[in-house]
Write a structure and sequence with these properties.
It catalyses: acetate + ATP + CoA = acetyl-CoA + AMP + diphosphate. The protein is of the alpha/beta class. The chain has 21 helices and 31 strands.
């Protein structure tokens, strides 16, 4: 394979941090220097500074048996104590940990003291149900405080949680319960989504009926008050058990390498992988990145990460990072457009959110609706914006900064993965000159390389494969029950360097640009083209709201670029002829990137197929572009979408 990626999308704007921001920033260039001088000593310092250890560690990294790393492995700590008790002991018990906002408009503020008590109660109940060190607990809940409480209660007693996103089906839940042999399931009667109650407990019942029988108990939070059946002897209400349990609970310490959680993520094969994370290293890096990437001032900031706890972003940047740092945060149950399209901005105004962390897909859907919606609200409390999940195209970056951020506040684009556990590549606001569209630089203490297929470093602007070349504290420790798959997937390709599965390039300043998954990189007439780059170009066109690009097999060129584009509402109301729009966009891409990138086809559609977490399922679009039968659509948020798109493409 020749790794040479054509790119032409020039984004020349740079944004220097304002002097005011730089002056108050928690990050200091000395962090980079310290990490460069002695990487391991740097991480050991962070672990000591940011966390409280029951038993201090003396060893930082054991990499004697790659790819199985051990960090701080003679140390002991309790993760929940680090997120809760120690803040209360430090006199911060009255600080709000969570401003909870339910979709129907109910709200509840929970202080650190209250959250600590709730977690202790839940820990007592779990132990009463016979859950102990190393046991697995499946959590299938809406975005309500009990999700956070459950995770921390499991962590407190040294059990291992496996959070399953509430939008997953009973089959997916059953396979995850079976794979981890979960003993307990924590769920709710239901939750609120898009103005309706969505039942969860019935799905749990269905799922358990399909499992091999590991589940002994089910704990049910009453949230939506929909009718549910409790199976005597197996199921119990949360409010009747946790609600009445004592709030005294002595926490014991666990080894730093003790597993904290399993989180399933889809791989290249059909079977989801159970990514395993451990305690000390994971908490060190989530706390470190949460503090420095988000410039956290815990006394004054109100932080809001919009991710669901069912995904890794919710684990690291709703639960562990922010709580380890004693942050005050917003937790919102529902969807961005319920009961009105300005709901998020209303929440920002209500709680005076100062740090907002969300995904490009959300930003682009707000762009589609137009700036007048956010402009109805007072967003002046915002002082920092973050992005994660996919490359953020410069146009969305600029819109985010201007329309949401008022034009002058930093936007950090953070690259990482379920497997990396925490942010790996990001600007540090206050230090880094920001460059829209680029994730920019490895965080201090992280070593990133871009390699060609044969493992040689790719310098300059031709692209290659992103690897993490040194072990890092929050790295995955394996795939649950499948060490071979762990080695094969991530380590076989480059020996002891971690293969991330993403394409990337360095620009002339050495900044990193992510080019999408390598499986989404196309080869057109021997030229490698990135789907992300063409999408970015399409989205930069004033008519485009959203775009997805796939490489479809083509007799003459090997692969051809096929694009699916949603036009902006204004364009649709001008009744632009789809054929004209498609021709205009093909020309636009050819002009911006080069003739080689001109899409063979641009289909104008109303919707794109997305998973429940908002990722576009390009595989399905590729099926369509290649005239194949559409593959498995069960992970789509709306399974009827492909039918509609097929009609439009005909
Ligand atoms: C992609 C989400 C470009 C990437 C935290 C990665 C990104 C995959 C970015 C992991 C970013 C995530 N720029 N691409 N800032 N952040 N990705 O496991 O392809 O859900 O491999 O973790 O998302 O997705 P995951």
């Amino acid at each position: 394979m020749t790794v040479q990626i054509d790119h032409a999308l020039e984004e020349i704007r740079r944004f220097r941090p304002s002097p005011e921001f730089a002056a108050q920033s928690v990050a200091d260039p000395a962090l980079y220097e310290a990490a460069k001088a002695d990487r391991l000593a740097f991480w050991a310092d962070q672990a000591r500074e940011l966390l409280t250890w029951h038993k201090p560690f003396t060893r930082t990294l054991d990499w004697s048996n790659p790819p199985f790393a051990k960090w701080f492995d003679d140390g002991e700590l309790n993760v929940a104590v680090n997120c809760l008790d120690r803040h209360v002991e430090a006199g911060l018990g009255d600080r709000v940990a969570i401003h909870f906002e339910g979709e129907p408009g109910d709200s509840r503020d929970i202080t650190y003291a209250e959250l600590t008590d709730e977690v202790k109660r839940a820990a007592n109940v779990l132990e009463g149900l016979g859950v102990g060190e190393g046991d697995r607990v499946a959590i299938y809940l809406p975005m309500i405080p009990e999700a956070v409480i459950s995770m921390l209660a499991v962590a407190r007693i040294g059990a291992i949680h496996s959070v399953v996103f509430g939008g997953f089906s009973s089959d997916s839940l059953a396979s995850r319960i079976d794979d981890a042999e979960a003993k307990l399931v924590i769920t709710a009667d239901g939750g609120y989504r898009k103005g309706r109650v969505f039942p969860l407990k019935p799905t749990v019942d269905e799922a358990i009926a399909k499992t091999a029988g590991s589940v002994e108990n089910v704990l049910v939070v009453r949230r939506a008050e929909n009718d549910v059946a409790l199976e005597p002897g197996r199921d119990q209400w949360w409010h009747e058990t946790v609600g009445t349990a004592p709030a005294e609970h002595e926490a014991t310490a666990f080894n730093a390498e003790h597993p904290l959680f399993i989180l399933y993520t889809s791989g290249t094969t059909g079977k989801p992988k159970g990514v395993v994370h451990s305690s000390g290293g994971y908490l060190t890096q989530t706390a470190f990145t949460h503090k420095y990437v988000f410039d956290l001032h815990p006394e004054t900031d109100v932080y809001w990460c919009t991710a669901d706890v069912g995904w890794v972003t919710g684990h690291s940047y709703v639960v562990y990072g922010p709580l380890a740092n004693g942050a005050t945060q917003v937790l919102y149950e529902g969807t961005p457009d319920t009961p009105h399209p300005g709901r998020w901005w209303e929440i920002v105004e209500k709680y005076k959110v100062s740090i907002l962390y969300t995904a490009p897909t959300a930003i682009r859907s707000f762009m589609k609706l137009g700036r007048q919606i956010p402009h109805e609200f007072n967003l002046r409390s915002l002082r920092l914006l973050g992005s994660v999940g996919e490359p953020i195209n410069p146009e969305a970056w600029i819109w985010y900064r201007h329309v949401i951020g008022g034009g002058s506040i930093p936007v950090v684009d953070t690259w990482w993965q379920t497997e990396t556990g925490a942010i790996m590549i990001s600007a540090l606001p206050g230090i880094t000159d920001l460059k829209p569209g680029s994730a920019q630089v490895p965080i201090p203490g992280i070593s990133i390389d871009i390699l060609s297929d044969d493992g040689t470093p790719v310098e300059g602007e031709s692209g290659g494969l992103l690897v993490v070349s040194e072990p890092w504290p929050s790295m995955l420790r394996g795939i649950w029950g499948d060490p071979e798959r762990f080695k094969e997937t991530y380590w076989e390709k480059f020996g002891d360097k971690y293969f991330a599965g993403d394409g990337a390039r360095h620009d002339e300043d050495g900044d990193i640009w992510l080019l999408g998954r390598v499986d989404d990189v196309m080869n057109v007439s021997g030229h490698r083209l990135s789907t992300a780059e063409i999408e970015s170009s399409l989205v930069a066109h004033p008519w485009t709201a959203e775009a997805a690009v796939v490489g479809a097999s083509d007799e003459t060129t090997g692969q051809a670029v096929v694009a699916f584009v949603i036009l902006k509402a204004s364009q649709v109301s001008h009744a632009t002829d789809p054929a004209d729009a498609s021709e205009e966009l093909r020309k636009h891409v050819a002009m911006q990137i080069g003739a080689i990138a001109r899409p063979r086809q641009v289909f104008i559609v109303n919707e794109l197929p997305k998973t429940r977490s908002g990722k576009i399922m390009r595989r399905l679009l590729r099926d369509l572009a290649e005239g194949r039968q559409i593959g498995d659509t069960t992970t789509l948020a709306d399974t009827s979408i492909m039918q509609i798109i097929s009609e439009q493409v005909k």
